[in-house]
Amino acid sequence: MLRIERLELTEFALELREPFRISSGEVRRRRILLIRAFDGEGASGWGECVAGERPNYSPETIDTAWMAISQWIAPRLLGRRLQDPGQARPLLEADFRGHFMAKAGVEMAIWELSARRQGVALATLLGGTRTRIPVGISIGIQDTPKALAQKVKRALGSGYRKIKIKIEPKRDLEYLEAAVTEAPGHLLMADANSAYHLTDASHLQKLDAFGLMMIEQPLSAGDLRRHAQLQELIQTPICLDESVDCLERLEDMIALGAGRILNIKPGRVGGLAVSLAMHDLCGAHRVPVWCGGMLESGIGRGHNVALASLPGFSLPGDISPSRRYWSQDIVEPEWEMDAEGYVTVPAGRPGIGVRVDEERLAHLAVRREVLTLS
Ligand code: OSB
Ligand code: MG
């Protein structure tokens, strides 16, 4: 039994060590929204909302999420008794559409709170079995193919087990050509973040020559049927990201053949309960899954590591170590990757297994709100 007594929201920002550019925009400074849930008995848990500053990846932003949490989510959860953290999500469903990133940030804080109350690792609470997670890097769009080739070479040398290259029309074939001079195609994949249209099918067929692991989200989020048509025309397996924000969309993906692989981001799909259901459904249909990333701080990263410890996460996740993104993360210890390209699941420690540097967070905070009953 668990009662949510208080929710605390904090916004702060971390400077990325290098700008991260996708087809729809660039991030240099990551605005981050953290959620801390308290049980009123001395325990608390952390969550992170993955929404960006602008609605270029999804319709939500960090500011819409803040409003959704304080106006709509908190009143549905505060003071409620939950048998287990899996009961949080249904309370946010019946009369409240969308805002999955806002919902996820809070739901994940409740899972972490629950794990800490029980003194178990979040990975264990979720049913995780892996002790270490294979890691992939996501490389943003570079100014030149040569610059990309250098990044790919360095990533391979660091041990990364999958290398994802952001592409867009006019920055695709030449760039992938440069990438395959440094790494074999079966370690490479491309992510278009919805930059293409079905009318580009004959162009996208040219990507088949690279033997990529997959192409992620070539078309718009709503284009499930068009993704299925595209998959008929190309050899490279399509992996969906933006398109699948709830369990029903995953059912549609499978039924239509709109994608052969799923990128599960708990922050995109409304949290860990939905992620578990997606993991199970994909397992039943033999759809490989992996855990994506959203340039999270060490807190969101901890949730992703815990989720990726489930047995079905057979492909490397976008779970790079803290150093890849920040000169200093907000957690201790920072997330690290070994020379073989694995992150270790912190099995012996409760919750996500890392400590939040609260003093530094207080120093960096630009906005705070405490939500309680009354
Ligand atoms: O499409 O997977 C994506 C980051 C921001 C927005 C969208 C995406 C990404 C990434 C980063 O690819 C993955 C990471 O956190 O390392
Ligand atoms: Mg993606």
Describe this structure as you would to a colleague.
The protein has 374 residues and is an alpha/beta fold. It has 14 helices and 17 strands. The strands form 5 sheets. A 7-stranded parallel beta sheet has the order 7-8-9-10-11-12-13. The protein has a 4-stranded antiparallel beta sheet with strand order 4-3-2-17, sandwiched between helices. Strands 1-5 form a two-stranded antiparallel sheet. Helix 1 (62-77) crosses helix 3 and helix 5 (145-158) runs parallel beside helix 6 (173-180). Residues 22, 57, 138, 191, 193, 241, 292-295, 318, 320 line the site of 2-succinylbenzoate.
Portion in helices:
25-40%
Q: How many E strands?
A: 17
Q: Could you give the order of strands across the largest sheet? A: 7-8-9-10-11-12-13
Q: How far is the N terminus from the C terminus?
A: 22 Å
Sheet with most strands:
7 strands, parallel
How many alpha or pi helices? 14
